[in-house]
Design goal:
Blueprint: H1 3-13, H2 15-27, H3 35-53, E1 58-62, E2 65-72, E3 78-83, H4 92-95, E4 99-101, E5 104-106, H5 110-125, E6 133-138, H6 149-157, E7 161-164, E8 173-177, E9 179-188, H7 204-216, E10 226-234, E11 244-253, H8 256-267, E12 277-281, E13 284-286, H9 291-308, E14 315-318, H10 323-329, E15 334-335, E16 342-343, E17 351-353, H11 357-373
Parallel strand pairs: 3-6, 3-7, 7-15, 8-14
Antiparallel strand pairs: 1-2, 2-6, 4-5, 5-17, 9-11, 9-12, 9-13, 10-11, 16-17
Helix pairs in contact: 1-11, 2-5, 3-5, 5-11, 6-10, 9-11
Length: 377
């Protein structure tokens, strides 16, 4: 029997164990800014890893966040990257407990992305020799990776490939991710009585309206670039000409060129209402993961899936960012979405398809092995 097919058969026999391990991690709640909770989840992961791969992680403490790091061998050829923090506050599990119904396992963080962690550990356990693999699981991805981004870039800069354990998109791998920039426009005007002498004021709210209309022209639907005003505040009382206003803007761009274009246009914004001034702040948070970064890895994964009989694989570009944006920016070929198959990330009721856990673990194992062996492109 083909090694990969034999591996898939073995992994299918572990499905019930995978589900129980997923239960353990989901019940170890881990909201990003709760240090006690993320430490508890890290210990649970380390316990599962010890049984499956026989290696305890190193805990990397950075500015109050603990990240788990495994190094198999002296150098990093293949970097596996994921996170164990979630968007769900502590106590969510009490009202929404882990549950299995048919082929679905649900619970806070099950899909995004604790299933990916379980699958990756089983994948590693299938390798005859993981020498050359480094695994990093972080505790701050959901809040923008403020403490782990430098470590991610450092590891990715010397790796030959980065495989990201984030969940799939409707079963599709994530071959592209848009870059993210968050801007704030602060507008200063001049207050005046709205009834007695409105002409003496400089209306910051009217200026905000002008800015929002200007922002609309920066988007490029054909290119896939979105420029979305999301929050606006202005004024102090109903009978006062607003002296201040504030706009928050979410920008998503599929290429570095598009991200830079929007950034340059944001810097050129100017006021329209006499007596008002504007101040724009914000710099790109995560650069795009462009399709060129994933092309070779996706081709490899597609061929492997076909051999295993679990294809055809699809690839999609998504608007959400991940640490895959950071590995791609470091110049490391990156393939994302290799974690759970399911739906509902960040939404009540997120779930994982249980029957897909073993095939996706097998796909990951075979892809890692091919990369380590320098197998066919």
């Amino acid at each position: 029997m083909d090694t990969s097919m034999d591996r898939l058969k073995q992994l299918r026999t572990r499905t019930s164990s995978m589900v129980e391990q997923l239960r353990t991690l989901v019940e170890a709640e881990s909201p990003s800014n709760d240090r006690e909770a993320t430490t508890g989840c890290a210990k649970a992961i380390a316990g599962i890893a010890g049984k499956l791969v026989g290696a305890e992680p190193v805990l990397r403490e950075i500015d109050g966040h603990g990240h788990l790091l495994w190094r198999f061998g002296p150098s990093t050829r293949v970097l596996l990257i994921g996170h164990f923090d979630t968007v769900w506050p502590a106590g969510t599990i009490a009202r929404w407990p882990f549950a299995v119904a048919g082929d679905r396992a649900s619970g806070p963080g099950a899909f995004d992305m604790k299933s990916g962690i379980v699958q990756s550990l089983h994948a590693l356990s299938m390798l005859p020799d993981p020498d050359g693999v480094t695994v990093l699981l972080t505790s701050d991805e959901e809040i923008g990776s403020p403490t782990s981004s430098t470590l991610i870039a450092e590891l990715a800069s010397s790796a030959e490939a980065a495989l990201v354990l984030e969940p799939s998109e409707g079963g599709a791998l994530k071959t592209g991710r848009k870059g993210v920039t968050m801007y704030t426009i602060e507008i200063t005007g001049r207050a005046a009585h709205a009834g007695l002498e409105p002409a003496n004021g400089a209306n910051a709210l009217v200026e905000a309206a002008n800015q929002i209309l200007a922002l609309e022209t920066m988007a490029d639907p054909i290119a896939g670039t979105t420029v979305t005003p999301t929050i606006a505040h202005a004024g102090s009382a109903i009978n006062v000409v607003p002296a201040t206003a504030r706009i928050e803007i979410d920008v998503r761009a599929p290429t570095i060129a598009e991200q830079n274009r929007v950034h340059e246009q944001m810097q050129r914004l100017s006021s329209h209402v006499s007596g008002t001034t504007i101040r724009v702040t914000g710099v790109p948070n995560r650069p795009p993961m462009e399709l060129s970064s994933s092309a070779d890895l996706f081709a490899r994964a597609t061929a492997i899936a076909d051999r295993l009989g679990i294809g055809p694989l699809r690839g999609v570009t998504v608007g959400g960012a991940s640490d895959g944006n950071l590995t791609a920016a470091a110049g490391c070929p990156t393939l994302d979405g290799l974690g759970g198959v399911g739906a509902g990330a960040h939404a009540e009721g997120e779930y994982v398809e249980i029957s897909a856990m073993a095939p996706r673990a097998c796909l990951l194992a075979a892809l890692i092995e091919e990369l380590l062996d320098g197998g066919p492109r």
